[in-house]
Amino acid sequence: MRGHADFVVIGGGLAGCAVAYHLARDGGADVLLLEQGELNAAASGNNSGSFHAQIPVEPFLNQGEGWARRFAPTLRLMMAGIARWMELPAELDAPELEVSAKGGLMVARRPGELAMLRRKSAIERAEGLEVRLLDRAELLGIAPYLSPDSIGGTFCPIEGKANPLMATFAFARAAERHGARILRRTAATGIARDGDAWLVRTEAGPVRARRVVNCAGAAAGVVAGWLGLDLPVEAHPIQVTVTERVAPLVPHLVYSAADRLSLKQTAQGSVIIGGGWPARLHPLTGLPVVDADSLLPNLRLAIAAVPAVARLRVVRSWAAIVNGTQDWRPILGALPGAEGVFLCFFPWMGFTAGPHVARLVAECALGRRRLDDPEIAGFAPGALA
Ligand SMILES: Cc1cc2nc3c(=O)[nH]c(=O)nc-3n(C[C@H](O)[C@H](O)[C@H](O)COP(=O)(O)OP(=O)(O)OC[C@H]3O[C@@H](n4cnc5c(N)ncnc54)[C@H](O)[C@@H]3O)c2cc1C
Fold first, then answer.
1. Tens digits of per-residue pLDDT, 218-252?
2. Is beta strand 31-34 parallel, antiparallel or unpaired with respect to 3-10?
3. Which of 201, 289, 346, 351 to mutate to test the pocket of ligand 1 (most atoms within 8 A of CB)?
């Protein structure tokens, strides 16, 4: 194959399929998306489907308030991300996305945890996030299923969930309806300048494109490396556990203020327990596998927050690679020194923000949004370096 496209998108996760959709729909562009494996087979299809808006506990505890203030502008992208999710079922004709926002509760069981939530929520409110401190009576009034030894917490009404098994495919179908071409099982293997365009090498032959969008998730650094760029992106194996289906028990997204926990119930009744506990890489295959040393403390936190979870049978735990950055901030926009190559990389919580940041990056790539637009400029590659 020697192909041609206006835009080549590398990566068929949520970011890549959403970028392809916006390029094709909003720009009427000729788009070719390359996915090395199957669509949605990496982080986007293996995550726990939470919409996060509150600052996560673990980096707040480990990296402190200075970190939280540098991270805080990211909350605006997450808030906009959740608002964007609300539009998607109708826009993509996809009721199966199971988008729901009944609010998130961060639950404290010790006075020190409540004090931490007070400090953290002040930073969140300063960014415009609606987040309320609750005393014990208010908390248990909203969520009587929580442990009676909860002493208070925070409530963020916009948090919620969607179905990660469906979202990427809904974008992919919509992108194809608008003329995008999607090549599965076709890896990009290199990028080189070709006159005023780029030559993207692929397993099926080269493709000449005016512009390229790097949506390779945890492999975004590899793709940027082909251009001689060193991006501060990371890849971490983490794990999630799902229980049997039960009658409605937990309407909210529940977190622990003590450590890593996210807990929610799907529309089908399964309880999903995650929070970013580390998995392992198998020594022979190099693939992510569940780590029992993480499973037990994760389940213990879940039961401590919601005691009824102790009665449920675990059906499955799985591990997958999450795209990360040390400072948890996304990297979005034009890659320096490689005119016409763009990056859409949202770490750790890229399910929440993915659909929104994909639209921002697509608009930049189409030349419809300025790169110094305040919504995105602060997240440009190297912006804080
Ligand atoms: C276990 C787990 C739980 C999580 N829970 C949540 C959560 O509850 N809420 C939340 O907001 N976020 C969560 N996340 C994070 C979120 O899933 C990711 O940030 C997001 O899905 C990243 O999307 P992406 O499209 O950038 O990357 P990915 O989904 O990883 O997609 C990248 C794609 O690029 C492809 N690719 C890479 N290199 C090439 C190449 N050279 N050529 C062609 N294709 C290539 C890959 O095969 C892959 O399909 C979780 C992640 C994990 C792993």
1. 999 999 999 999 999 999 999 999 999 999 999 99
2. parallel
3. 351
Residue 109 CA to ligand 1 center (angstroms) comes to 33
Q: Does domain 1-99+160-233+327-385 have CATH number 3.50.50.60?
A: yes
Specify the pLDDT at position 382.
78
pLDDT at 298: 98
What is the homologous superfamily of the domain 100-159+234-324 according to CATH? D-Amino Acid Oxidase, subunit A, domain 2 (3.30.9.10)
Out of 19, 316, 323, 331, mutate this one to test ligand 1's pocket (max ligand atoms within 8 Å of CB): namely 323
Q: 85: part of which helix (H) or strand (E)? A: helix 74-91
- Domain residue spans of the chain: 1-99+160-233+327-385, 100-159+234-324
CA 257 / ligand 1 centre spacing (Å): 26
Residue that is written with structure tokens 């109708």 in the block: 90
Task: Supply φ then ψ for residue 289, to 5 degrees.
Answer: -135, 155
Query: Distance (Å, rounded) from C-alpha 145 to C-alpha 270?
Result: 16
Decide whether any atom of ligand 1 lies within 6 Å of the 14 Cβ: yes
Q: Give 143's DSSP letter.
A: -
Which three-class secondary structure string do you get for 12-26?
A: CCHHHHHHHHHHHHH
**Can you list the residues of the chain whose pLDDT is less than 50?**
none
Is any ligand 1 atom within 6 A of the Cβ of residue 11?
yes
Q: Ligand 1 centre from 173 Cα, in Å?
A: 18
Are 154 and 134 in contact by the 8 Å Cβ rule? The answer is: yes
To the question of pTM greater than 0.90 for the whole model, the response is yes
- Three-state DSSP state, 195: coil
Ligand 1 and 219: CB distance under 6 A: yes
